[in-house]
Design a protein that fits this description.
By secondary structure, the protein is of the alpha/beta class. It has two domains: 225 residues, P-loop containing nucleotide triphosphate hydrolases (Rossmann fold), CATH 3.40.50; 101 residues, Helicase, Ruva Protein, domain 3 (Orthogonal Bundle), CATH 1.10.8.80. It contains 14 helices and eleven strands.
Length: 329
């Protein structure tokens, strides 16, 4: 669905909403259930934000990302992280080659990071040095090899996965590096009805394949349109109240926060919530962001930015419980 930038605003809005509807319909042809996760992944993509997906094996995390890439017409690549993976395996390296005349020269061979949509599978299974190479590219949108800097093509979005049940031989991401992810999404088991549909769709001879309905340039236009969604002042103040209440021992913090939070959310969390509210309002066809969107994006934005203390751990209070309490307050 092409978005005509020269069309009137009303026509542009109709084209954008049609594109979003087509994306949802194509995704539903392959992915059963997980509507909330798909919506949150689209929010992250529209905000040019990277996303961390946590879930046990077999919940279609890889299929989700590859399906989105196919529908959006983006160049997709996947890296299976292993303990012996090196930074050059991700960003690429220079190889000495001999030409037809017998001359030798170095040629740069780009790694899988040179794509639009990158799936970093089991990012916690590779050593910190390789993690850092990926995180640097995520932040700077560029890589440096042999002293030469190469820009990554826009859009560039990373969806990284983690396996929460297998921790032996893994390298968990530090909290400071987790903050580079826009969203932290937890994928849960499907319902029995959804799992029945999954069996029917995937164990027969035929299966639905999604169609490419956009391309990279049109995705960039959708990302740009997100910036035009109004963010009212009351919504901004609501975001600020949530983030400031998450910080212990401040004027706005409650006894609950002081007792159970070690570190609260920083300014980046406020920025991410503001951007996510605009994108979610656009996906829902609303003319402006509201406090409802704030409540819906608070958990994936704050889940990896609010750090519980020993009291919370000892009393079985999770970060989700803390965020729920912040929203109630």
């Amino acid at each position: 669905m092409t978005t005509d930038s020269s069309a009137p605003p009303e026509k542009q809005w109709e084209q954008i909403q049609q594109s979003i509807t087509d994306i949802r319909n194509q995704t539903a042809r392959v992915i059963v259930g997980q509507d909330r996760i798909v919506e949150e992944m689209l929010v992250s993509l529209l905000c040019k934000g990277h996303c961390l997906l946590t879930g046990v094996p077999g919940l279609a995390k890889t299929l989700l990302v590859s399906t989105l890439g196919r529908i959006l017409g983006l160049k997709f690549s996947r890296i299976q992280f292993t303990p012996d993976l090196m930074p050059t395996d991700i960003v690429g390296s220079e190889i000495l080659q001999t030409d037809q005349t017998g001359g030798r020269d170095f040629k740069f061979v780009p790694g899988p990071i040179f794509s639009n949509l990158l799936l970093a599978d089991e990012i916690n299974r590779t050593p910190p040095k390789t993690q850092a190479a990926l995180l640097e590219a995520m932040q700077e949108k560029q890589v440096t090899v042999s002293g030469e800097t190469r820009q990554l093509e826009e859009p560039f979005i990373v969806f990284a996965t983690q396996n929460p049940i297998e921790q032996e031989g893994t390298y968990p991401l530090p909290e400071a590096q987790l903050d580079r992810f826009f969203f932290n999404l937890h994928i849960d088991y499907p319902s029995m009805a959804d799992e029945e549909k999954i069996i029917q769709r995937t164990t027969g001879r035929e299966s639905d394949e999604p169609e490419a309905i956009l391309n990279a340039a049109e995705v960039l236009k959708l990302q740009d349109a997100t910036l035009d969604v109004p963010l009212p002042e009351n919504v901004v103040k609501y975001i600020l109240r949530i983030t400031h209440r998450s910080r212990p021992n401040t004027d706005l913090s409650s006894d609950f926060t002081n007792n159970y939070v070690d570190y609260g959310a920083g300014p980046r969390a406020s920025q991410c919530m503001a951007r996510a509210c605009r994108a979610l309002a656009l996906l829902r066809g609303r003319s402006a962001a509201s406090e409802e969107e704030v409540r819906d994006v608070a958990l994936p934005v704050l889940r990896h930015r609010v750090i519980p203390n020993y009291n919370a751990t000892g009393e079985g209070i999770s970060v989700n419980d803390i965020i729920d309490q912040l929203l109630k307050e």
